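Hey,
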Amino acid sequence: MLSPRAEIILRSIIERYIERGVPVSSHSLVQAGALRVCSATVRNDIAALEREGFIIHPHTSAGSMPTDKGYRYYVTSLRELTLPVSEQRLISHLFHQVEGKLEEWLSLAAAVTSQLSRNVALVSIPKPADCQFRHLELLILQDRLVLLVLVLRGARVKQQLITLSAPAPQDELTTIADRLNAQYHGLTSRQIQKEENELSPAERQLTDCVAEMMQAEDVQEHSQCYLEGLHFMVSQPEFSRSGRQTHLLELLRNKSMLLTVLPHGVNVREVQVAIGNENEAEAIRDCGVVVSRYGLPNEAVGVIGVIGPTRMPYAHIMSAVSYLSSVLTVLVGELYGVRTQDTFKHSNSN
């Protein structure tokens, strides 16, 4: 833990660097007058922050810049983030102007989020929660060739041919299907993979096939999204000087690939932040990512997020993503006839 004064200094460095994009000198911190200590004390605290990895100096004589560790400490310390009322009213007004169609809402949400964050914004089309196993049928076609018919929650049917490692008669396949139906009913692919039941070789092969089919379905349903704000990214000095700009732009244009690199395990209305090297994908290791899920956990869930340089106004972007997540949650609830706890009110103005 940092001392209260060190926290103030780190926060001041980060917020000034976010605003101006140039290293922050100790002299400018003293001149701001918020610390009320001598310049020597500020320099000593800055030296300590550098030793602990919260900031760096790009040059010996230059000022300070935050590291990923510094940004993480700063983001973790943010409390009670609320989008300004004026921006909440603007969002409400804009959504009241569009037709009550999901596509219009998502397109508008991406555009508004991009404008508020001055970075790239994305909003995925809401999909059912991770698909759930409902029923399995196995039909022998010839020798070891079997047709696997998988029924998922919502009456979605998937089929796949599979070659068993050893021949099995139809009555044995029916018995296997009955057993797997009893074990996996209502489970997601992740839950199926965590099951520790004793399985025969044929049952293990079929279980692995079912899990792969369900995972492919989960990825495919999240492949479409609305993307706005590429012009903001190319104008950022971090990316204009970086050789990674090309790879990043390719990733952003490939919308189906983009959603696979976002943080996982985010709950609805929970805002998650990944900073720099916390991102798994190499293409966004120089980026900050702010993301939240929206929708109805048991019906349909989408993703809303922002991608930009690590030098981004996290407090404002986190509050914007959180608020837009609540707006979209209410709207998706209206489509499904479900009342949510969020307070955003929408009525079709037409």
